[in-house]
Specification:
Layout lengths: L24 E17 L3 E2 L2 E2 H11 L5 E5 L2 E3 L5 E3 L10 E8 L1 H14 L4 E15 L7 H4 L1
Antiparallel strand pairs: 1-7, 1-8, 2-3, 4-7, 5-6
Helix pairs in contact: 1-2
């Protein structure tokens, strides 16, 4: 069977000469920033999903630079219940920590949203000095300055 369809080309590919591979541009960023650490439990929920996943989505939606989620081995909090991994257990309530670093203004603007979402937990803010080394891979037609 052969099928023929009418097709409209929106943007034709441009023939280009093979480019030599250039190493990615090296960038170093330094400055003052704010670090926010959010301590919650693995079993905490927000609108039928794990709270830590909902927080990551909300942090991303609020244009905050990045977040990393850590699962603790064991710990306890305000209720002094000891939380640890249990072998052969299908569910656990291990400690979770989210670490966020960005400009103070962005962190402060996010706090009211965080306050609605975290019913039990601990939020810690710290002043930090950022020294960020990164490599930017240029996309077609973009320079490293346009990506920053």
């Amino acid at each position: 069977m052969i099928e023929v369809q009418e097709t409209t080309v929106a943007k034709p590919a441009q023939a280009s000469k093979p480019k030599k591979a250039t190493p990615p541009a090296h960038l170093k960023m330094e400055g003052k920033a704010k670090m926010m650490r959010i301590y919650i439990g693995e079993a905490d929920q927000w609108k039928d999903k794990p709270l830590y996943k909902a927080l990551v989505e909300a942090i991303r939606a609020n244009d905050i630079a990045g977040v990393t989620v850590y699962r603790g081995i064991c710990g306890y909090g305000a209720h002094r219940r000891f939380h640890k991994e249990k072998r052969l257990s299908l569910s656990s309530d291990l400690p979770i920590m989210l670490s966020v670093v960005d400009e103070e203004s962005k962190i402060q603007a996010y706090l009211p949203i965080l306050e609605q979402m975290v019913r039990e937990g601990l939020v810690v803010l710290s002043d930090v000095d950022v020294i960020k080394y990164t490599h930017r891979l240029g996309h077609a037609g973009e320079s490293t300055e346009q990506q920053s």
